[in-house]
Amino acid sequence: MSSSLKETMQTMDAHYRSYGVEGRFGFDLYDKGLYQVRYQQVVRLIRKHQPAEQGLVLDLGCATGRLLAQLQGAYPNAQLMGSDIAGVALGYAKEHLPSATFAQCGWPHLPLPAASLDGLSIQEVLGHLPEAMRPEALAQSRVILKPGGWLCIGIKYRDKPGGLQPQSFLTLVEAAFEVVDRIPYQMWLSELLSDALSRSLDRAMQRNLRLAGWQQQAGGDLAQVTGKKRLFLQLISTPPMSWLFALLRGACNLWQVIIRGLILSPLPYRLLRTVEGLLSPLLKPRGEILFCRRRQES
């Protein structure tokens, strides 16, 4: 394993510890409704072209396994696999999807023999690879698929140097696969709502921690506290200010519960998807999802 891959694994583990599984928000951020609606779009595209029961299917870059869970619902008899470089995320996925198998590895160096997969899902991973490595990664993906096997691959467009754009993405994929269908990834409004709710929840958490800290200090020894801070702590420790302070904390906790409910519920994102569908002629796609077949040997 290269030093750069090890460093990336450590970075991703730190990311999931901070923001995802059992993170500072106190719930699985990656279970939010936005991802449920996004992955429903992926599964619908796969089922449209692959309605029959599946064999061995890999979700490359599976994170906490949310797409795998939806694939399990669509294909209950399929043998599901997930791979990711983040061990923390895989640990969560293993716990919640005991029927699937998982491997911690990078792409394109997947520990799978040729022609071993019936299907392969790769969502928002290709753009994270160095530009020079992308053709090799897609070529290996073709090798590990059985003849007639399918690939469902999605990306977000990036304007920065090395970022994928519609034509460059299509050209890259068509070098190894036959593109059967393509749908726009159009979730501008949904992602704006999700980001705004996450920021609001973060602020509410920070305020609640600050209030809790002041309350704890007010109930302790104030001998080492001087000046205005001491007067403030004395004030909030005596009625009626202590009652008002308790109401503030209660309101802050209620606000957190409401925001969490909105983040975790798929309903607001489904409504926004309907609006986004109506506005799609006016909105530039955020990305694209392709359904492909392994190109036959010439």
Automatic annotation (TrEMBL):
The keyword Iron does not apply. One of its GO terms (biological process) is methylation. Gene3D superfamilies: Vaccinia Virus protein VP39 (3.40.50.150). Pfam families: Methyltransf_25. It comes from the Bacteria. One of its GO terms (molecular function) is methyltransferase activity. CDD domains: AdoMet_MTases. Residues 57-149 form the Methyltransferase domain. Coiled coil: none annotated. Keywords: Methyltransferase, Transferase. This is Methyltransferase domain-containing protein. It comes from Magnetococcus massalia (strain MO-1). The lineage of its organism: Bacteria, Pseudomonadati, Pseudomonadota, Magnetococcia, Magnetococcales.
